[in-house]
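Predict both folds.
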Amino acid sequence: MQLAPRSAQPVSGRRGQAVHAQQKHGGSQLLQEPPRPVKSTGRRRGKALLRDVALKPMEKDDELLSQIASDLRSAVEATNMVQWYPGHIAKAEKNLKDQLKAVDIVLEVRDGRIPMSTRHPQIPEWIGNKPRVLLINRKDMVGELDRAAWSRFFSARGHTVQWTNGNMGDGVDRVLQQAAKVGLKINANRTARGLRPRPVRAVVIGFPNVGKSALINRLLGRRVADSAPKPGVTRSLRWARIGGDIDLLDAPGIIPMSFKDQIAAQRLAMCNDIGEASYIDSLVAAALLQTINSLPGRKQYVRKINERYKLKMEDYQEEEYVHALGDRLFNCEPERAGQRILKDFRNLALGNICLEVPQQYEHYTTV
């Protein structure tokens, strides 16, 4: 297949903001405190590499694609692909830790496609011995075999797990039952001490855009929390009562301030669990394809991708594939190709794909 020559494409809108932010902040670590403007040799080198590739005469299409992929890898290695830590999260985290002292049970929501990348490593420290239920949300986006494997993984480590679909309400009744059990124990102890019973206090906690607000609306049976398919919608803590038995605290999405795991960061971007302005679509789409290629069930997913885009993944490296798709469908615009791949993954057009498998985390002692 002959590919048209690629010209340097300007990036505008939110994509342009992402590029500007990365050029401005250079090699700062993902999700740290808002980085100060620094000289960014890594980003400048990356820009120079991409500029040089765009100006090279096109001798062979395949050679050009390979060179672009190599140069992109070098640029990405020089700095981080994804950077995001909204200012409201730091304040919300402090308020949340204060409120946790009054909470009886913690409902931690995770994204079923990436149940370990949406794990906040500090939650066990914050909650101490308080009961915790893992609500693995978006069960409709994960295959049955993957759900069973992850349930075994968490149960073997002593965790109570409920698979939920906040949009449809699946699993909500079981979550309420778990909270009610904790309430019975608490009020039995209060009665023994001569105190009056009170509603059990539960908090819903988790990363941005994992579906917390949708779950809360289902738990309450009415809309009290704003819900949208983008991170950062909930920005403050608020209490709501379920009947007369449960007080529910809705917390904003929180992420670690110091989050150096760029593989996890890429997966958050793939699943739209962090802000779109924090990453470059073509790079994250290439990382998504690479992740899919590493999965045990990759053959069925690769087959769907090949059929959907009429372009064989086996013929390209992942970065090359995104550029080739951009050449074929989007007038040599790899960013549009990246956006298309990410959108199709999020809308299940590529299948019900869980990007993580338990075998990758067998060595973890706290999950």
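Second protein follows, with its predicted structure tokens after the sequence.
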Amino acid sequence: MQDIPQETHHETTRLTQSAQVVLWEIDLTVVGGERYFFCNEQNEKG
């Protein structure tokens, strides 16, 4: 980190995402269903 210019370090820190994306899966195949995948973010469909 000593070789990185301070301005560059500030820019990369500023660009880092602070949000956490949570992913999960519901597997209903054992009862004849499907596998569903979800996350806590909206997609183009809302």
